[in-house]
Amino acid sequence: GEQVEQRPPHLSVREGDSAFITCTYTDPNSYYFFWYKQEPGASLQLLMKVFSSTEINEGQGFTVLLNKKDKRLSLNLTAAHPGDSAAYFCAVSAGTNAYKVIFGKGTHLHVLP
Amino acid sequence: NAGVIQTPRHKVTGKGQEATLWCEPISGHSAVFWYRQTIVQGLEFLTYFRNQAPIDDSGMPKERFSAQMPNQSHSTLKIQSTQPQDSAVYLCASSLGDWGGYEQYFGPGTRLTVL
After folding, report:
1. What is the pLDDT of residues A56-109, one digit of tens each?
2. Which residue of A has its CA nearest to B41?
3. d(C-alpha A112, C-alpha A104), whole Å
4. B43, B47, B48: best to mutate for the A interface, most A CBs within 10 A
5. In this structure, is the dihedral angle defined by the CA atoms of residues A94, B75, B87 and A106, taken in order, positive or negative?
6. Which end is more exposed in chain A, N or C (fewer Cβ atoms within 10 Å of the end residue's Cβ)?
């Protein structure tokens, strides 16, 4: 079945720097991709939903890149600020059982002031 | 819209006791999911309901775990004879449907601690 590997598990950056998180997946039929943010003690909040037809997706303060050839999904937080400190999870919707979303193990981001 | 509601937020049980966790999905959402979140394993899929019917329970540990959805407004996850390794945050999520493009909306989770 689908496997999703997320790197790095922990990341510390200075305020104003970029933070880059990457997920690789195995199922070439995967079509839907998600990034979620989980602040301490809170639940997962959707950051962005990406369809396989779009390689570059711009959000507020971040960019999501999808490379289907390499089966790689990336989140780049530009000019990170302390409010971005949280756990970030990628998720991939498996091609066959589309309802079954497979999550990466998460990246704990700490933005230092 | 109150979002997905989960109760209780925290539950402490003794080894061997039963724990029942509750979830109220977002009104109008036909798909309900249960996940278990731990530091070591991350987010693990447990089970899924579509229009209250159980569709996939492939992630449920057999024998002690069971889930039900008696009506469209709530689902329960029951763990019998709880063990310390069951300690985790249990997350419920709902979505408009089970088309892969629908995002899942998560509840705040129930933190289960088994002593």
Report:
1. 778 888 999 999 899 999 999 999 999 999 999 999 987 556 778 889 999 999
2. A105
3. 24
4. B43
5. positive
6. C
Q: Cα–Cα distance between A10 and A86 in angstroms, integer? A: 10
Q: Distance, in angstroms, between A17 CA and closest chain B CA?
A: 27
Contacts of B91 in chain A (CB under 8 A): 43-44
- At residue A82, φ and ψ (nearest 5 deg) are -55, -30
Does residue B25 sit at the A interface (CB-CB below 8 Å)?
no
Residue with tokens 């700490």: A110
The two three-digit tokens of residue A66, written as one number: 């999808």
Locate B26 and state its tokens.
Answer: 């977002």
Q: Rounded to an integer, what distance in angstroms lies between the CA atom of residue B82 and that of residue B45?
A: 19
B32 CB neighbour count, 10 Å cutoff: 28
Comparing CA positions, the residue from A20, A15, A106, A53 lying closest to residue B35 is A106
What length does chain A have? 113
Q: How many CB pairs under 8 A join A and B?
A: 57
Interval B4-41: pLDDT, tens: 999 999 999 999 999 999 999 999 999 999 999 998 88
Contact A59, A48 (CB under 8 A): yes
> Rounded to an integer, what distance in angstroms lies between the CA atom of residue A43 and that of residue A38?
6
| Percentages of chain A per state (helix, strand, coil), in multiples of 5 | 5, 55, 40
